[in-house]
Structure formats: structure tokens, C-alpha cells
Amino acid sequence: MAENPTFTKCLMAIFFITRLASTLGKSKPWTGFLPPQIQTLDFARNLHVEPDAIKSVSSDYGNIVHENPAAVLYPSSIEDIRSLIKFSYNNYTPFTVAARGHGHSVGGQAMASNGVVVDMMSLRNHKNGTGITVSKCPSLGFYADVGGEQLWIDVLHSTMEHGFAPVSWTDYLYLSVGGTLSNAGISGTTFRYGPQISNVYEMDVVTGKGELVTCSSHTNSELFYAVLGGLGQFGIITRARIALEPAPKRVKWMRMLYSDFSAFTRDQERLISINGRKQKNALDYLEGSLLMAQGPPNNWRSSFFPSSDIPKIMSLVTQHAIIYCLEVAKYYDDGTRHTVDKDLQQLFKGLSFAAGFKYEKDVSFVDFLNRVRSGEQKLHSQGLWDVPHPWLNLFLPKSRILDFNKGVFHDLVLKRNITTGVVLFYPMNRKKWDDKMSAVIPEEDIFYTVGFLHSSGFNDWQAYDHQNKDILKFCDKAGIEIKQYLPRYSSNKEWINHFGSKWRNFRERKAQFDPKMMLSPGQRIFNDM
């Protein structure tokens, strides 16, 4: 007998309504911001709307921006993520989706107001996540396939078991791989090895269309370059293939103090000019920072200086108002332990640091890379970690550093007298970055990163925020063409100015890979336009 199409459609409708009613009857109180059909899908078992779940993703390390999503997805597989995005993409009214790693954003960048936050850490509890696998092939040598949910500290430990390690790091290792690759991933290793985004061979990405795509510089290259430094706008990174090199065993770690800014930056630039990956006489790490009377020489990032020398260091600070600290490191192993000191002596010839203010430590490779951890644990124990962090991170062209030193460090920061946290200041080489990627940096061959890493109370973070805004106003008025790292803007005009010549390509890539503008709304690039 021929099948009756009308009868079949009625049966299907009854089945759907029955299943939906059954699901609703068993579910938690639902939200009006998401389509009710979402509860009938397989991943719905991992979708949570309870107050504790919502609260856990409604703030971040910055502790300044607070936004509630409609729900939180705790994925048990990459397929959960793909299905969620695909469902939203195909829906008449798409909802926004944001991937959250370890929650270390400082301005709500990983939030999704009334959308869905994907808690990537959940994948670490399931074997369906990518995990960390070390392999070798003739064309690449050794590499690690790493889930976007993995933390860099776990990448370090896992690769070290094989005698290898990545070469480019962030200062703090309890960050997710997907999170740092969505920005750039920088530290004192960047001058020589480039940012972390310059050390990726391949990725798996779930696009804004809900498609799982493998991409590299040779395959689906437009997506590859878009995602690296793309602020989460084009897809969620679920796997990255990371370059590895043989891991050293130990590190010579040194700090030298300067009272003269020009000598400090001149020496920094001279040291980063030796930057070939195979140059044995090159440093492996170089950063700089400021010491001022408001803050102690030893801070949460590391207690480096011997306590017996603190009085004379503070005397130097009192005398000059600002002291500039050059921090460098050189790795070594059994094969180079007899020559590392000689190499360093040769490198340091002619440096102009203050006599009697050179300090040195010899530590394991792992302890050096994980140097911030002990400070974090101390702040946790004192209840000082989960506080507001009104940070400001900038990239500054080399040609304007003298103006910045006078106009910001001396005429603004010193006079405000509120900066007690870490202030970083060190150079990078532009040639170590790939301009095809989405990350934005100054046009000059050498540029500096400036980081105001403030911590504050819940009632006074606005003072630091106002100072940050005044720093930006000074740069704008002085014509200093800065670029924000970990940027946060409030208008379309500011984003267009930030991306500059890259804006058109960035916008076209958005239309290609996330045409309904669902991903990472917390960045406020397209969603508030």
C-alpha cells in the first residue's frame, strides 16, 4: 500500500513533540534565550543552566567584566562542540558561542552574554579530547599534537618525558593552548623563537558553520592564518600541532639593573640582534621590567633578588625614581655546561648595567619555565589571586620608546603613584612574526611590549583603569602608533584602527568562516557594531 505523506508527517511531529515534552519534564529549569529544541540533541546532556554553572563562567581573571551566558556546555567530545555550533548556525535565530580555556582573560573576551560558553577544560576529563601526543615525521622532525583544551604546563611535562619541549612560551604556563594561540602567546622567548603562533604546523578547528576543518600553511591556509592570533573570531581550536626541539636540562638565569633608560634599551636591542635559532651564542630568553618605590623588587612573578641586597636596591630606586631591570636566560645541558659561562661572558661584554647589580641563578629548565607558579600559590593562600586585574598590554614602535618613557613612565605613572604591580618592557623582532596571521604588531623591525600587570581591590580598580585610559590618550595625542595586545575596544572605529591594513582581510575572513557572527562575542569586534 502506498505511504500517506500527510500521515507520515503527522507521526513525525507527534514524535518530536512527545520527545521534547519528555525532555523538558526531566530537565533543569530552562532559559528563554535558547531554542527549546536544543534539549532534544545528543549534546544537551552536557548543557547546564544551573546557577553554579553560570556563575563559574560569568567572570574571568580580570574580575572586572561580569556577563551571564544562557548555558554552559561541558563537552565530552569535539563532536559536542561541532554539534552545538552547527545547531546555532542552522537555527533561525542563532545564539552566540564562546570557548573558555582556563579563564585567564582580563576583559570578558571569553564570555557570551545570553549565549553558550564552552568550557574547554571539560575535554581534559574525557578520552575523546585530543590530549597530548608526541610524534616524528621526516619533514617536521618531532612535534606534539595537543588538544586546544590542554594547559601549557601539561604540554611541558608530557613532551619532557620524551626529551623534547616547545621553544616558545608564555610567562605563565597555566593557560590553554587554544587560548594563547588565539592571541599570539608571547614572553621573553619571542625575540628568538617568535610567538607561539609562529610555532604551529597544523590545527583542527571548528568553524562558525559547525565544520571541523584540518588546516595548515598548505591546506585550508586561509583558515589557518585567520585563526592564529584571530581572537577566537573564526573557529574554536580543538587540536594544534606544535613544533618541538630537544629539551635542555638547566638554565642560567640573570638580572641586571640600570638607572639609564637609553643604556637599558640599547643593551636589550643589542642582545636580541643575535637571534638565529641555530646560533649557539644567542640567549634563549630576554625580558625587562621596571622597579619603582611603590612596589618591592621581588614580586609575585618571582622572588629573585637576595633579601640581603634589597636595601641597596631600594636605595638605588630612591635615588633614580625608576630602575630598569634586564632579565635574561640561557639554556644548557651536559654538552654545553662547560662553555655556557664563557658564552655569557662574551655576550655581556660592553653592557652598561650598574656596577654591583648583577644577579644570577642556576635552575632546572622546568623550574625556570614554571617560575610564576610559586607566586600564584602564595597569592592564592593570601586571598589575593581572585581580585580585579586591570591590565594593559601594548606593542610600541622602537622609534617612540623615549617619548613613552618620559610621557608615561615618568610624567604619568610616577606622578599617579598607584602602580605597585609588575611593569614589563622588552623588545621583539618583527621578522619572527608571520604577517599573514591575524595578530597585529607595529610596522617597525623592532618593537617593544609594555605590560602593566596591575592587581587591585574590588573598590579601587577604577583608578588603574583610568590610568590605562590616560596612557592610551597620551599615545594617541603624541602620535605613538601603539597596538594593544589582548585588545579590548568599545567601538567599530577603534577595531578598524587597531587592525589597520589587515581590517579588510579580517572582515572577509569573518564572513567566510563565521558568517552569522556567532563566535567569541565577548571580544566585541562584530557583535556590538
TrEMBL record:
Reactions it catalyzes: N(6)-dimethylallyladenine + A + H2O = 3-methyl-2-butenal + adenine + AH2
Top-level taxon: Eukaryota
Cross-referenced Pfam families: Cytokin-bind, FAD_binding_4
Signal peptide limits: 1-25
UniProt keyword terms in alphabetical order: FAD, Flavoprotein, Oxidoreductase, Signal
This enzyme's EC code(s): 1.5.99.12
GO biological process, one term: cytokinin metabolic process
EC top class named in words: oxidoreductase
FAD-binding PCMH-type domain residues: 65-247
PANTHER family reported for this sequence: CYTOKININ DEHYDROGENASE 3, GULONOLACTONE OXIDASE
Assigned protein family: Belongs to the oxygen-dependent FAD-linked oxidoreductase family.
Name this polypeptide is given: cytokinin dehydrogenase
Source organism of the structure: Populus tomentosa (Chinese white poplar)
